[in-house]
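Hallway conversation turned thread

IA: we were arguing at lunch whether anyone had actually written out Diguanylate cyclase (GGDEF)-like protein end to end. Turns out nobody had. So, for the record, here is the sequence (281 residues) and right after it the structure tokens. Reply here if something looks off.
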Amino acid sequence: VKRAKATGRTETYQSRTFDLARRQFSIETELRQAIESGAMRLHFQPISDLASGRIVSFEALARWKNLRGVELSPVDFIPVAEESGLIVPLGRWAMHEAARVLAEWDQKAGGCCDVSVSVNLSAIQLQRDHVAGMVREALDTYDLTGDRLTLELTESAIVTDPDRIAQTMRALKDLGTRLAMDDFGTGYSNLAYLQKLPIDVLKIDRSFISGLLSDRDKVAIVRAVLSLASALGMETTAEGIETNELAQTLAALGCTYGQGYLYARPLPADQAYTLLSASRT
Ligand code: C2E
Ligand code: MG
Ligand code: MG
Ligand code: MG
């Protein structure tokens, strides 16, 4: 360690020698501070109607620039947040921040902003927190109706306590929100839950979308998911659309919505609003 001169290199070398638990602890401590000090940010990625191209929603995605100015990916810090329980305050912050931004867009648009915001809910939040109360509080604080929110859940949320989750989901539906099953196709395989739970949208995981055009098996899977959704009266969103051909193919297959770098990367709130207002003129 002492022989490496550049701080960057030293840090990399040291972090490799740290044991996992210790690293996790330091991320956890920093993450707690970041949440408390307001250092977290949300970025917003548009979700568009594939047939018309109209932006219908923006997914709110957490971003964290740590004390050394390094932007950390949610793929790295969300699992730490879940294991430590910090996902509860982080998730509550994300919900309130998403509602605040939506109310700000409404105000800027003179009250005629019609998009919704999609917020991710972790399985841990659904188990531990009184999620419906938390969501209602965010809606009330910013004077928003529930139909302006889509809540994205993953299949892992359903596995642990199906009855309790069903109850929570109904309470969320009672608020008027829409519910989306995120990363569909990557988790739990017992599809019986689709009948029982009030799900409005299936979000087809990016792993089935990328490389779709050159993979007949993926086409078969996507077709099957689309027909399943349609039979159950659900809408569909394809994640990770990066090319025009993909967007066209998915529209032709009957997928309802699309999200991906083709349209926009996740953007800071002001840039997302600029994109939205440009698309509405
Ligand atoms: P997700 O909910 O499935 O979000 C979509 C992810 O795909 C985002 O990654 C987005 O940036 C990425 N993505 C979108 N379009 C494309 C594309 O065309 N190509 C590629 N390669 N990627 C694309 P991100 O922002 O890194 O978030 C990763 C995951 O972290 C999310 O997956 C979600 O599960 C979780 N996450 C993010 N923010 C929150 C949060 O506030 N709360 C909770 N519970 N989870 C969050
Ligand atoms: Mg999501
Ligand atoms: Mg997703
Ligand atoms: Mg995904």
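OS: looked through it. The CA atoms of residues 179 and 199 lie 5 Å apart.
IA: good, adding that to the notes. Residues 1-8 have pLDDT under 50 and may be disordered.
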